[in-house]
Design goal:
Helix content: 25-40%
Number of strands: 56
Largest sheet: 7 strands, antiparallel
Oligomer: single chain
Strand content: 5-15%
Number of helices: 58
Distance between the termini: 75 Å
């Protein structure tokens, strides 16, 4: 029996502390006045009575009641029931101390105010309704002046009402006011009572929100409730804790937190708390708190809070049950009832059933909800009792929970929610309270016992779900209301409106004497022996065993084969049939990935231990250890399957004899696993073994144990030992089956540990004291002996075999850390072979760490198990001795194990080397490991398991080569080769290694070598490789990777075969005439370019060493790749110009030298195109040719990076060239590189233009020192451009279109483009320059019915010709009504008549702005977008990581996603589009094109080369492609040495694969036009490989000047017209020069092309191909080059042709049948062999047959090319077989050309839009939901998109359509003008003046429909583009004041313009938003206007200056800042 209430308190407003209507609470009276002994009075109780604070009120408030909860230091809760009412207070306003009147405060003080007063009951019981009634009666007696003394009421409440404990009877009482009350204790003390609070919470928040909170509370998160109602806060907090039953919430619990204590919420511990909504702002800054708004029904989860998901299927069942239907028959109708939402499933019924007469009450719903959550926990914790471990039974039971075992059996190891619940305090309390097997049971125990059967029933019959829930709800209801007969209570209540009486007396002071008297009498009358039902103690039902949850039969079926293989393998091992065991060993290792197989392995091994077969031979021991390691590796550190626990006894039993008296146990070889570092594992394993010992201690007392089931359960866990490791006992489950209620039914089965404990606890009270002491002593000894045993085991597993090495604690995922320093571990390992004995300090370190670990373990388990302090002390004394003895024992074991004969390792295979290739470092034995690629692993790709492979790595002077054999025995006959040239090595790093199948003992660290030819070697060095060798390997590889000069590369060094040691030694002086001539030329060159005398008036020329690297610094840093980082001085070191004054005579003035130069392939191409001969250059006046080959740069005096001979206009003198070259960067002025054979249009290349800034001043005229040189240079530049224009036929005449064009010119396409919606805005150049404020941008008018605005290139939508359309050539553009045609007007203003322009200059945006277009008539300057080198570098790195990952890719980032993220294909697309635009302008438009991008040697080269390849079929032959590369890449100075990092000086700049990109583009074109190329794809891959391999000298040096210095260009080398017979005799090489000058790749290709068909494309058909190719460039048509993906493990890269052929020949020789004949059958594996070289090819085969027949017949062997050329086409049939193109084919071809040209026009017009209009071109889409009534397609994923139900997204600007799911992936570049509606018919129009378009503000009537208008201020059109406008003060420039202006933020023009006033139409100025860098608020602005708000200032920073603005107020300023921010 206990008191109803402990204290009654009256608390009032403390007027003494009153300040402006706020004060504190004051306890006026409390009863009893002395504290109860067992329940002291709680301090600060007044804070909780008024949580929002004690304040006066101007109005009388109605009485309020709520319950607050306090928790004392013992975690007991005290409930504060508070009833608050108002009392009137007379107030006279007074002056406060500081002189301010009270009226100035926030609270208005009246003469009559109301103060709060609280009546409080404090109780430890939670009968809220009773407390409310009692306080209500006291208030009623006071307010209605009842005839009853208040003292009597208080005394009766405190002293006379005794409440029985749970399970007691109902009591009825009265407190003396004529009331009748009843109080019913619940039946069970452990089941909380909820009234209706959980249903109320669901009603407020909804199902999903409550489940979220439920999850958060269980996973220890902080939860804060907000509400206007204090009662609701208490109810909500109570509901969340009740839903957690059977778990108890153990953290901070404050349902109502007072305002002064809000700081408590910053606690780091979890909590559930509530605050009044008025305090919401004070709690808004809490970072990690989940905030719940009860009134608004919302839950806010902060970003930093990561909630786990509730586990399936439990949560699905709970959700379903929360909305489940309970269908009951009522006559012929049915009615539905749901727990939470009774109308959801009936909402769609046509004839819904009648609703029930009486809807279920909130209390009923509450119990059903609770039933659902109790079932949730029962299902979640199913089998938990099977995982309880009994440690002690007497004197007090101690039971633990085996968490890992539970998670493993439930298969929920990775379930974050369950793991966190099991680790929480609530579950710890749950185990402590409910783990005891003999106790009082409650509702949860019953549900837990039956849940498995109920779920089985429900799966068969879903109607049972609600039935079971209602039954459980009924039990919960009975628990709260066990009395079926309701008692009618009588509780007096105040009359209505009583609280608002005016003349209400204050609450009286109570007389304490009568209260204490009644209280004393009540205590004396207490009857402590009230009849209470005793709690029935019984054995707790076991429930379903956890092992029964696994589908045993299916598991057996799946694993039967695996187990059979495992058993056979182990039998082979123990029968010493080692070879048989090794054959099936890989299958066993694969099988060990299964949990069942791992457990079975431990069982099988334990059987063999029983047979006394624990001492093994060496090979047996190795295999057993390997099996154990594989088991542990596949298991986690948690040991959820019990594998590690089962391996413990095995590891301490299996051993081998090393020598007499020294035995090595298996545990010394299995220590490297994270599980041994896990303290939780050791505790769980110890407790499991203790339980078995306790079981054996008590089992003999039960006769049932004598009849045991002999059947062995092979899946329940681990075998274990008593004190001897050889005594194996069976592992049983903790409770074999569900325990029946009768305890007599133990027959015929083994008794479980929990059942033993229950029986012992039941009989404990009947035992004598001696017997009790004996049992306690036996249990103590059992635990103590196991502690000794485990201390020894832990020492065995923790002390490493090599005690000199400190053992490092491993984290579970230790293998995932990548970058580590290998040096430390190597340094440690050097002491392994030291002499006997050890360093005491090191040993003691190891010993100390082990002693600490074991001691910590012993303290934990012994204290938990209540071992006596004496025993614990003796254990502490024993552990150091055990460790010391074990270390001493291991020293001898380690020494002897080193003396074992080494394991036979495979023979090191020697690699095949190239001529001149030498091994620098002999083979180091390594393992080649899988590197993330699936090829060669035998997994999804199929094929043999080639990796990991065992072999050796070799370092030669050319390559890094691995050669070895696979570790997999089934594939070990194959040979694995992986190699790459040392020059391609881009990154080397140490990596952490994880366990790999087939390798016994893998080192922890390995080396990863990454190559830029998409190759990667991930290697682990064998233990025999000493650190010195490893270091030597790394140093040598670095040395050969980065030579000091290119002359130290293999191209030069490797060819000197006779004397490799003297590779850099110069030949004897003037040894021959040829050498003398060469030396002379070299000397001359040195004089020319590297003279040491100071040049007159030049300071930019730096000397270069004769044989040194041609330095590119200071530009060789990464900064050189960015346009913005380009140095101020463009005259860089050795790329600067060379003054002609340096040359005494030009070495190239000799006609013979020029003649020799003209034999070079690049110069031969000029002759082919008809550009004349350099010898004609002197007679320019007489020649009719418009161009000449100039020798102006013959001594490289104009530009060092240009070739010696250049094509320039014939009538432009060399002196002028020298002058105007300075207008271009690096002096790379425009030169002609190709001429169209039909249109005679020219293709020119140059570098970017110089800006008119600092460089203009620096580059003054050399003669005068003034800037007149700049002026003359500009004039010469204009002359040069006019020469180019005049030489372009298109400027003078028209031409006929080529046959390949169906759309005759771009002009016709422009019109089509408009009709097919190529809608691009344009800003006319003239207007932009003359009137910067009135720059025109185009806008359209919305016409939703117009269907002519479709996407570019849509084949589904045909152009619609309007009646008002006109051609672009037409000069009469006006309608008869004087209007302007809208479409033609758009094009005329946008493109300015593209046809009339003779020269297009494609350049960078930054340079085009400063060019005066009027100075260059008939020229158009088009800014284009291109990728800079830094982008290419970054993209290439990402592409390499995608194609050659170092580890398997995670599931969320697939290969294709990584390729997309690399943007490599976007860059390829960009090159193709620019080249396509160039192609169309030259071929279709007939205009000349000049490319002026960056420095003219990277992107320019790419675009120019691709354009020529597309236009000229000659370049698609092998000879032509050679010319193209020689001319554009080599002669014009692409910096190969710099970009490919060929020397150590360039290494830091980063690898930039510009040439590789070009080859990839050619590959894309080749793929689309396979009949148009003479060479095949292998030819391109060969070039891609060897341009970085440094085997050939061709792609070395940075320009022709450096190659001339090296003497390459002038050597006696055969041209393309080489004598074939002689060449064959020489083998294609000039052997004498080869040793010094290096080999040319073209000679090598030519040689092989003559001998074989390796580079030939047999599909090449010159007669059938189109002259001009127009490939598709959209991403969907591009493919990832197989060069990036394929590799050949059989013989290494196929591009080393000699070694590949030799390897293939060797492998074929080995593959012979029994008779020695080679096998006819070939097996080709895609992951191993090169399919291209192995697959049969009919042409190749036939040519080989002819060759063989000629040899057999003794005929002269013809070259294959001769035979091929003799083949005749079937000309007779060809005419009859002429194919007629179908209409569809023509449509497709026409569409392809149309797409191509549209892309060209898009580039041109997009480029024209500088400044603000260009931004429009890449504006984001404006998507709106759209319902498609006709079938449409998603423009992103191409899937169908239509239907009334499925709405898509439609861009209102450009008409882009997509799914809603695709929205986030759509490219953010809206390619159309915004189509906005305009209500007026007034539009600005365009009038024509002369050749250019000028915009004027004339208003002309036009037809309705889509029109395009330029922007004019103060017209109606501005409203749509005006994003924001208003008045701002703007500070003028320096020393000027603030002025008010009208500002307009224009979204269309991307400008911030300002006017004098709102009415002003003339713009005073504008700020380009492109240039804005930042905008931010500022304060403390000097010179600001008076009375300005200091928060209303903001600052706008642009590239040029800073602007200061002042808005009207802070809010307006912030609005402007936000608007501007959205645009920058």
């Amino acid at each position: 029996m206990s008191r109803l209430a402990d204290y009654f308190i009256v608390i009032g407003y403390d007027h003494d502390k009153d300040r402006n209507g706020s004060s504190e609470g004051r306890i006026i009276q409390r009863f009893p006045e002395n504290d109860w002994e067992a329940c002291p009075f709680t301090q600060s109780i007044e804070l909780f009575c008024r949580p929002v604070g004690w304040t006066l009120s101007a109005q009388r408030q109605p009485p309020e009641f709520f319950v607050a909860v306090l928790t004392d230091i013992d975690a007991d809760r005290h409930y504060l029931s508070v009833l608050t009412f108002s009392e009137s207070v007379a107030i006279s306003p007074t002056k406060s101390d500081d002189g301010d009147t009270e009226e100035d405060t926030a609270l208005n003080i009246h003469s009559l105010m109301y103060s709060p007063k609280c009546l409080v009951l404090v109780s430890r019981l939670d009968y809220f309704e009773t407390f409310k009634n009692c306080l209500g009666i006291i208030y009623t007696a006071y307010v209605d002046k009842l005839d009853v003394q208040l003292e009597v009421l208080v005394g009766n409440i405190l002293g006379c009402v005794q409440v029985p404990p749970p399970g007691g009877p109902q009591i009825r009482f009265s407190i003396g006011a004529g009331d009748r009350q009843a109080l019913q204790p619940p039946v069970s003390a452990t089941v909380p009572t909820s009234r209706n609070v959980t249903a109320l919470l669901f009603q407020q928040l909804g199902i999903q929100n409550v489940l979220t909170l439920f999850c958060a509370a269980l996973t220890d998160h902080k939860i804060l409730f907000h509400s206007q109602s204090h009662s609701r806060l208490t109810d909500a907090c109570q509901a969340i804790t009740i839903l957690q039953y059977p778990l108890r919430y153990s953290y901070v619990y404050v349902p109502i937190l007072p305002a002064p204590l809000v700081e408590v919420l910053n606690t780091p511990t979890p909590f559930i708390a509530g605050v009044h909504s008025s305090l919401a702002e004070d709690t808004a800054d809490l970072v990690d708190v989940i905030i719940v708004d009860l009134d608004g029904g919302s839950v806010h989860i902060p970003e930093c809070v990561n909630l786990p998901t509730l586990p399936e299927p439990m949560v699905s069942r709970a959700k379903k049950a929360l909305t489940m239907i309970d269908i009951d028959s009522i006559s012929s109708f049915t009615w539905s009832e749901m727990v939470m939402n009774s109308d959801l499933l009936m909402a769609d019924y046509a004839f819904p059933p009648p609703s029930p007469k009486k809807p279920p009450s909130l209390e009923q719903k509450d119990k059903e909800i609770r039933a659902i959550f109790i079932r949730f926990f029962a299902e979640l914790l199913t089998g938990y009792r099977s995982c309880l471990t009994v440690i002690r039974i007497h004197p007090e039971p101690f039971i633990t929970f085996h968490k890992a075992n539970f998670l493993g059996h439930r298969g929920m190891v990775d379930d974050e929610f369950l793991v966190r619940v099991l680790e929480g305090m609530g579950f710890g309390t749950f185990v402590a309270e409910r783990g005891t097997p003999y106790r009082t049971c409650d509702i949860f125990d019953e549900v837990y016992a039956n849940i498995h059967d109920q779920l089985t029933e429900e799966s068969a019959d879903s109607e049972k779900i609600m039935e079971h829930i209602k039954d459980l709800a009924k039990q919960l209801n009975t628990n709260e209301n066990p009395n079926p007969q309701p008692y009618v209570q009588k509780v007096p209540k105040p009359t209505d409106g009583a609280y608002s009486r005016i003349h209400q007396t204050p609450f009286p002071l109570l007389d304490s004497e009568p209260v204490h008297k009644i209280l004393k009498e009540g205590i004396e009358k207490q009857n402590p022996k009230m009849a209470v039902r005793p709690n029935q103690v019984r054995i707790v039902p076991m429930g379903t065993p956890i092992t029964a949850l696994v589908d045993r039969q299916r598991m057996m079926d799946n694993n039967a084969r695996r187990l059979e293989v495992l058993r056979n393998c182990i039998n082979f091992v123990f029968d010493n049939k080692i070879s048989d065991a090794r054959i099936i060993f890989p299958a066993v290792l694969r099988a060990l990935k299964s949990r069942v197989t791992r457990l079975a392995l431990t069982q099988e091994l334990s059987y063999h231990i029983r047979s006394n077969r624990a001492v093994l031979e060496h090979q047996q021991f190795d295999l057993v250890v390997k099996l154990l390691n594989c088991c542990l590796q596949n298991d986690s550190s948690m040991d959820e399957n019990g594998v590690a626990a089962a391996i413990l006894p095995l590891a301490t039993t299996f051993c081998r004899k090393l020598c007499t008296g020294i035995i090595q146990f298996a545990y010394t070889c299995v220590q490297e696993h994270a599980v041994w570092q896990n303290m939780q594992f050791w505790e769980a394993a110890f407790y499991q073994d203790v339980q078995k010992q306790i079981q054996q201690l008590y089992a003999p007392h039960y006769e049932e144990n004598n009849v045991k089931d002999k059947k062995h359960d092979s899946f329940l866990g681990s075998p274990t030992h008593k004190n001897s490791e050889l005594n194996i006992s069976k592992n049983c489950s903790n409770g074999g089956s569900v325990t029946p209620e009768r305890r007599s039914s133990y027959r015929g089965r083994e008794i479980g540990a929990l059942e033993i404990a229950a029986e012992q606890l039941r009989t404990w009270s009947t035992l004598s004291d001696e017997k009790k002491e004996e049992l306690i002593s036996n249990e103590e000894s059992t635990v103590y002996s196991q502690a000794i045993h485990y201390a020894n085991r832990m020492v065995y597993m923790k002390v490493p075999l090599e005690t000199q090495k400190s053992i490092k604690p491993l984290s579970p995922d230790w293998d995932s850390t990548s970058n580590s320093n290998i040096a430390s571990s190597l340094a440690d390992s050097e002491s392994i072979d030291a002499e006997s004995g050890y360093d005491e300090m090191e040993i003691s370190d190891v010993g100390t760490s082990v002693i600490k670990f074991v001691t910590r373990f012993v303290d934990k388990v012994c204290n938990d198990s209540r071992v006596t302090p004496e025993h614990i002390k003796s254990l502490h004394q024993m552990i150091p001795g055990v460790v010391a003895m074990h270390i001493e024992t291991l020293e001898a074991v380690n020494r002897e194990s080193k003396r074992l004969p080494p394991i036979q390792k495979p023979k090191i295979l020697k690699p095949t080397l190239l001529p001149g290739e030498e091994v620098v470092m002999d083979g180091l034995r390594v393992y080649l490991l899988p590197d993330g690629r699936e090829e060669g692993l035998g997994g999804n790709m199929g094929g043999p398991t080639l990796l990991p492979a065992e072999g050796a790595i070799f370092l030669t002077n050319y390559r890094i080569i691995f050669k070895g054999t696979p570790c997999d025995p089934l594939a070990c006959e194959q040979i694995v080769i992986r190699s790459f040239p040392i020059s391609t090595l881009t990154k080397e790093k140490q990596v952490k290694l994880q366990y790999t199948p087939h390798i016994d003992q893998l080192p922890k660290e390995g080396l990863q070598l990454r190559s830029c030819i998409f190759q990667l070697m991930k290697i682990a060095f064998d233990e025999e490789v000493i650190p010195d060798d490893l270091e030597a390997f790394r140093k040598l590889s670095t040395k050969y990777r980065s030579p000091t000069t290119v002359f130290m590369t293999f191209a030069f060094v490797g060819q000197a075969i006779p004397q490799p040691s003297t590779m850099l030694k110069p030949v004897e002086k003037n040894a021959s005439l040829k050498n003398f001539a060469k030396k002379t030329i070299m000397k001359t060159a040195r004089k020319a370019g590297i003279a040491k005398q100071k040049p007159p008036k030049r300071k930019y020329v730096l000397p270069t060493p004769p044989m040194g690297r041609r330095s590119m610094s200071p530009r060789s840093s990464a900064g050189s790749d960015s346009e913005s980082d380009r140095p101020v001085s463009e005259a860089m070191d050795d790329l600067s110009i060379i003054d002609e004054g340096e040359f005494n005579r030009s070495w190239l003035s000799d006609p013979k030298v020029i003649e020799r130069l003209m034999e070079r392939p690049g110069y031969q191409d000029y002759v082919r195109q008809g550009f004349g001969d350099p010898s004609d250059s002197t007679v320019t006046g007489k020649s009719t040719e418009k161009f000449r080959i100039s020798t102006v740069n013959s001594n490289f005096s104009v530009s060092k990076s240009y070739p010696a001979l250049l094509v320039v206009p014939a009538n432009f003198p060399d002196d002028s060239i020298r002058k105007f070259a300075r207008t271009h960067r690096q002096y790379r002025f425009p030169v002609v590189t190709w001429r169209h054979s039909r249109t005679k249009a020219l293709l020119l290349r140059a570098s970017g233009f110089h800006g008119r800034g600092l460089m203009g001043m620096l580059k003054s005229d050399p003669a005068t020192g003034t800037s007149t040189g700049e002026i003359s240079a500009s004039l010469q530049q204009e002359r040069y451009f006019s020469c180019i224009v005049s030489a372009t036929p298109n400027s003078m005449r028209s031409y006929k279109p080529s046959y390949s064009d169906s759309l005759t010119s771009l002009d016709s396409l422009m019109l089509t483009g408009v009709q097919e919606s190529l809608l691009v805005p344009e800003t006319p150049e003239v207007v932009r320059r003359s009137h910067p404020a009135a720059t025109g941008s185009l806008r359209n008018i919305n016409n939703p019915k117009s269907s002519s605005f479709s996407r570019i290139g849509s084949i589904r939508e045909k152009p619609r010709m309007n009646s008002n359309s006109a051609t672009l050539d037409s000069t009469a553009m006006l309608h008869q009504n004087g209007g302007v045609n809208e479409r033609s007007d758009l094009l005329q203003s946008s493109v300015q008549g593209l046809k009339r322009v003779a020269l297009y200059v494609l350049g960078e945006k930054a340079q085009m702005k400063g060019i005066k277009a009027e100075s260059f008539p008939k020229c158009d300057f088009i800014p284009v977008e291109f990728y800079e080198v830094r982008h290419v570098k970054a993209s290439f790195k990402k592409l390499m990581r995608a194609c050659v990952p170092s580890a398997p890719l995670p599931a969320e980032t697939g290969f294709l996603k990584l390729v997309e993220e690399s943007e490599w294909l976007l860059q390829i697309q960009n090159i193709m589009q620019l080249a396509g635009a160039t192609e169309d302008l030259l071929d279709v438009q007939g205009s000349s094109v000049m490319l002026c991008l960056e420095d003219g040697w990277d992107c320019t080269t790419q675009v120019v080369s691709v354009a020529q390849l597309l236009l000229d079929p000659y370049y698609r032959t092998i000879e032509g492609f050679k010319c193209l590369v020689e001319k554009e890449w080599l002669s014009f100075g692409h910096r190969f040495t710099h970009r490919s990092n060929q020397t150590i000086a360039n290494h830091a700049s980063g690898f930039a694969p510009l040439f590789l990109q070009f080859l990839d583009v050619v590959h894309q074109i080749h793929h689309q036009f396979p009949l148009s190329f003479e060479f095949n794809q292998f030819f391109l891959r060969f070039l891609a490989y060897h341009y970085v391999s440094n085997r050939f000298r061709t792609f070395m040096m940075d320009n022709e000047y450096e190659r001339v210095e090296a003497g390459w260009l002038m050597e006696d080398r055969r041209s393309s017209k080489i004598n074939h017979e002689q060449a064959d005799l020489d083998g294609g090489f000039a052997t004498r020069h080869q040793s010094h000058q290096g080999a040319s790749i073209w000679d090598y290709i030519e040689k092989h092309h003559r001998k074989s068909t390796l580079f030939m494309n047999f599909y090449y058909s010159p007669s059938d191909q189109d002259v001009v190719l127009r490939p598709y460039s959209n991403i969907s048509n591009l493919r990832i080059w197989d060069y990036f993906l394929n590799e050949d493990l059989a013989h290494g890269p196929a591009y080393e042709i000699e070694t590949t052929n030799k390897e293939i020949q060797m492998s074929e020789e080995e593959k012979t049948d029994s008779s020695g004949q080679p096998l006819m059958r070939k097996i080709v594996n895609g992951c191993h062999d090169n399919v291209f070289m192995q697959q049969p090819n009919v042409f190749r085969q036939k040519l080989q047959e002819i060759h063989k027949l000629e040899t057999d017949l003794g005929h002269f062997q013809q070259k294959w090319k001769t035979v091929w050329d003799k083949l005749e086409l079937p000309t007779g049939k060809r005419e009859t077989m002429q194919r007629n193109l179908s209409f569809n084919t023509q449509i497709v071809k026409s569409h392809g050309r149309s797409i191509h040209k549209r892309s060209t026009l898009e580039i041109l017009v997009k480029g024209k839009m500088l400044g603000e209009a260009a931004k429009m071109f890449s504006q984001p889409h404006r998507f709106e939901k759209h319902t498609y009534t006709t079938p449409a397609y998603c423009d992103y994923c191409s899937q169908v998109l239509w239907g009334l139900l499925k709405t898509g997204m439609h861009c209102t600007d450009c008409g882009y359509n997509c799914h809603e799911k695709c929205l986030s992936h759509v490219p953010k570049n809206c390619t159309k003008l915004k189509i906005v509606s305009d209500s007026s018919n007034t539009n600005t129009s365009v009038s024509r003046v002369s050749d250019t378009s000028t915009l004027k503000n004339e208003e002309l009537p036009v037809e309705s429909g889509p029109t395009y208008a330029t922007y004019t201020p103060a017209t109606t059109n501005t409203e749509n583009s005006c994003l924001h406008k208003g008045y701002l003060f703007k500070r003028g420039a320096l020393l000027k004041g603030w002025k008010q202006r009208w500002f307009v933020l224009d979204s269309t023009k991307h400008q911030l313009r300002y006017y004098d006033s709102e009415e002003d139409t003339n713009c005073k100025g504008y700020i380009e938003l492109f240039d804005v860098q930042s905008v931010q608020p500022i304060r403390n602005v000097q010179g600001a206007p008076k009375k300005a708000d200091e928060n209303a200032f903001f600052e706008l920073k642009t590239n040029r200056r800073m602007y200061n603005f002042l808005a009207a107020d802070a809010k307006t300023a912030q609005s402007w800042i936000d608007r501007i921010h959205s645009f920058i």
